[in-house]
Design a protein that fits this description.
A hairpin with a 5-residue loop joins strand 7 and strand 8. This protein starts with 10 loop residues before the first strand and ends in a 6-residue tail after the last strand. It is of the alpha+beta class. It contains five helices and eight strands. Strands 1-2-3-4-5-6-8-7 form an eight-stranded mixed beta sheet, sandwiched between helices. The protein has one domain: Gcn5-related N-acetyltransferase (GNAT) (Aminopeptidase, 3-Layer(aba) Sandwich).
């Protein structure tokens, strides 16, 4: 059984604080979504506007209230380093997916994988048994991040994702199981 929290938590991973987004942080979301890699490897609108960022923050509150999804900000030295999302919750199956985007200046330093580990442990504490993440095969940084965070590459789904140019491509499916369900 999934125990959905009454409010979003603040979590810690040493020098990383993982916390709910504040309404006044649309600029941080906007800045992350201006990065060409973020735009290429995710489904954010292009061009991404300040209004898109404000809507995204508002939508995260709605998803939390509906018990389907939520987002948290991972902060390092007072700056938002990583946007973390948990979404597509299927409570009966005890599964949920995660997504993330890292501000360019924080890439390659291990912050994202550590933040993901903390988020996933929190999801397991709510009763989820499986956490999934999907990525494009050419997103090498994301693949490495997921592996460092303890995920395993489960499969390649043929023609499961769409590139920005509209062409269909394969998708990689990663997963991490709660400790009691690991081999």
């Amino acid at each position: 059984m999934i125990t959905w929290p009454d409010k979003l938590p603040t979590l810690s991973a040493g020098d990383i604080s993982i916390r709910p987004w504040r309404e006044d942080e649309a600029a941080a979301v906007y800045n992350i979504c201006q990065d060409p890699d973020t735009q290429y490897f995710t489904t954010v609108p292009i061009p991404y506007t300040h209004a898109d960022a404000e809507k995204w923050i508002a939508r995260q509150r709605k998803g939390f209230e509906d018990k389907t999804d939520f987002a948290l900000a991972a902060e390092v030295d007072g700056k938002v380093a990583v946007q973390l999302s948990a979404f597509d919750s299927i409570a009966f199956e005890h599964i949920i997916k995660i997504g993330y985007a890292t501000a360019p200046e924080f890439r390659g330093k291990g912050y994202t994988s550590r933040a993901i580990e903390v988020l996933v442990d929190y999801l397991f504490s709510l009763g989820y048994r499986r956490v999934g993440a999907d990525t494009l095969p050419e997103n090498i940084g994301s693949r490495k991040t997921l592996l460092r965070a303890g995920f395993y590459l489960e499969s390649t789904q043929r023609m499961a994702m769409t590139n920005r140019d509209g062409t269909q491509t394969d998708g990689l499916v990663f997963a991490k199981l709660a400790p009691e369900y690991r081999d």
